[in-house]
Design a protein that fits this description.
By secondary structure, the protein is an alpha/beta fold. It has three domains: 40-161, Rossmann fold (3-Layer(aba) Sandwich); 197-407, Rossmann fold (3-Layer(aba) Sandwich), CATH 3.40.50.12780; 412-518, ANL, C-terminal domain (GMP Synthetase, Chain A, domain 3, 2-Layer Sandwich), CATH 3.30.300. The chain has 15 helices and 27 strands. A nine-stranded mixed β-sheet has the order 2-1-10-9-11-12-13-14-15, sandwiched between helices. Strands 16, 17, 18, 20, 21 and 22 form a six-stranded antiparallel β-sheet that branches. Strands 4-3-5-6 form a four-stranded parallel β-sheet, with helices on both faces.
């Protein structure tokens, strides 16, 4: 078989998960992609063949291959091919504007960019803005799987190691530029080992994967574990509630992972009551805490939701609350996964707090990331020794169950997507008539949070809200665009150096609540994932 040569890979390297499974269960279905099924033998054969083409073309450990692709079998093939060849896959978001995507491509410095045909125009415009354009190819059997461009900087070939980067996932941080989180084979191995011990899957499971594959959860929250144990993954291109409900019933989906917004939209869909969801045994929630009424709505249908908490830098799984405990610990995110250590720390002194306490959550374990891509300073700021500082304020009760209280960082989460205010502020400030800007998140009944921008115009500038929002849409992904813009004479500050975001949040909350009282929001906007 074509993958036999890979079986001497190291014990934690992820590529062998697929090749080992193909040897054991060649005819089981690995991927159901919009009704087109691929068994394990075929998936492993395609991935191994592409890995060999990449090696022969000069690509290898130390290289990064960026992708611009929706969820697809072709993208899964590229992931496992990179894993087998020791190359880091950098899946970039198709939600970004050409400017945003071009910036990430420049920072990634990929040896090769693989592009899905649907996103060729976006990728092409982004690539044209780069100083040095990398080699490119299309995804799939008629693209890179048929012919790979020769590497411009050939790599020396060697066996894949546990500490080789496997994934680089860009995530919004507290600074203006998103940071690339480097996850090694070992990081992903330990993450999935812990997930499998706490919330196991078997080869009989059918996993619905509806999160976009530029998110770490789209790989490390069930799909990779499913391919490790021989289960079937049903891939969805985008999240449409009616379609997802149809798949749950028709494919007898047993496991899924989503953000609270998605679960809310599923429960409010007109087909909710009529859909048979009885096959679901493991519905995992991440991205934010599930509201109690929504938890109850799913429980009433016989589906108990399992709350989780994580962050990309931890690969991402840190905490989980078994569904059986959700009623007793409403709003909590649970206890650590196996092989994950946590501590609650005084934010002022950095000293650990014991017993029942409120403080910053720190995380340690073999799934914690290798660092930020080419950014040692940001990595140093995120770590304290071998502890990852999450920036989240949590409360630990007497039983050791944790609840997220607030975020020490300024990030807010809209529909499960992290939004960094500094990144939005930077984009707004690109407009020549904007003097300065500040963005804060406010609660939203559907999206969890939405952004409100406070903008100081340059003196005498005739800048309108509509013009500024149009500018924002050209420079920011849709989920980052503020839901409201408020022009102000000056931004409040607690000191000369520090913006008084707490005061802005309170002002923003009053403004949005006033809007809802006088003109109810239209929540018919579609959701894509």
């Amino acid at each position: 078989m074509i993958w036999d040569a890979e079986l001497d890979a190291g014990p934690h390297t992820v590529g062998r998960w697929l090749t080992d499974r193909a040897t054991q269960s060649p005819h089981r279905i690995a991927v159901d992609d919009r009704g087109v099924t691929t068994d394990y033998a075929t998936l492993a054969g395609r991935a191994s063949s592409l890995a060999e083409r990449l090696r022969r073309a000069g690509y290898g450990p130390g290289d990064r291959i960026a992708t611009v692709s929706g969820n697809s079998t072709d993208h899964v093939v590229a992931f496992f091919a990179c894993a087998l060849a020791g190359i880091a896959l950098v899946p970039l978001s198709w939600r970004l504007t050409p400017r945003e995507l071009g910036d990430l491509l420049s920072r990634t410095d990929p040896a090769l960019v693989l592009v899905e045909d649907e996103h060729a125009a976006l990728a092409g415009e982004a690539l044209r803005g780069m100083t040095t354009v990398p080699a490119t190819a299309s995804l799939g059997t008629t693209g890179a799987e048929a012919s790979v461009p020769v590497a411009r900087r050939p790599r020396e070939q060697r066996p894949v190691r546990d500490d080789d980067p496997l994934l680089v996932i860009f995530t919004s941080g507290s600074e203006a530029a998103p940071k690339g989180v480097v996850l090694t084979h070992a990081n992903c191995f330990w993450n999935n080992l812990a997930l499998g011990q706490a919330l196991p899957l078997t080869q009989d499971d059918v996993v619905l994967a509806m999160l976009p594959q530029f998110h770490v959860a789209a790989w490390n929250c069930q799909p990779l574990l499913a391919w490790w144990v021989g289960a079937t993954v049903v891939l969805e291109r985008s999240f449409q509630p009616a379609r997802a409900l149809q798949l749950i019933a028709e494919r007898a989906v047993t496991a899924m992972m989503g953000v609270p917004t998605q679960y809310a939209l599923l429960a409010s869909d007109r087909g909710w009551e009529a859909t048979d969801v009885s096959s679901l045994r493991l519905a995992l929630v991440g991205g934010a805490t599930m509201p109690a009424p929504l938890q109850q709505a799913w429980s009433a249908r016989g589906v108990a939701l399992t709350q989780g908490y994580g962050l990309t830098e931890a690969a991402p799984n840190v905490l989980h609350l078994p569904a059986a405990e959700s009623a007793a610990h409403a709003g909590a995110v649970g206890r650590p996964y196996p092989h994950v250590a946590v501590r609650v720390v005084d934010p002022e002194t950095s000293l650990p707090l014991h017993g029942e306490a409120t403080g910053e959550l720190w995380v340690r374990g073999p799934s914690v990331f290798a660092g930020y891509l080419d950014d040692e300073a940001a990595t140093a700021r995120a770590m304290s020794g071998d502890w990852l500082r999450t920036g989240d304020l949590v409360h630990r009760d007497a039983g050791g169950v944790l609840r997220v209280v607030d975020r020490l960082k300024d990030i807010f989460i809209s529909g499960g997507e992290n939004v960094a205010p500094a990144e939005v502020e930077y984009a707004l400030a690109l407009h020549p008539l904007v003097g300065s800007a500040a963005v804060v998140g406010v609660p939203d009944p559907v999206w969890g949070e939405r952004g409100v921008a406070f903008v100081v115009r340059t003196p005498g500038a005739p800048l309108s809200v509509d013009e500024l929002l149009a500018h924002a849409r050209r420079n920011l992904a849709a989920f980052k665009v503020p839901v409201r813009v408020e022009f102000v004479d000056a931004l409040p500050r607690s000191t000369i150096e520090k913006l008084a975001r707490a005061r802005l949040r309170e002002t923003a909350r009053r403004l949005v609540e006033g809007d809802r009282a006088t003109e109810p929001a239209n929540e018919t906007e579609g959701v894509e994932s």
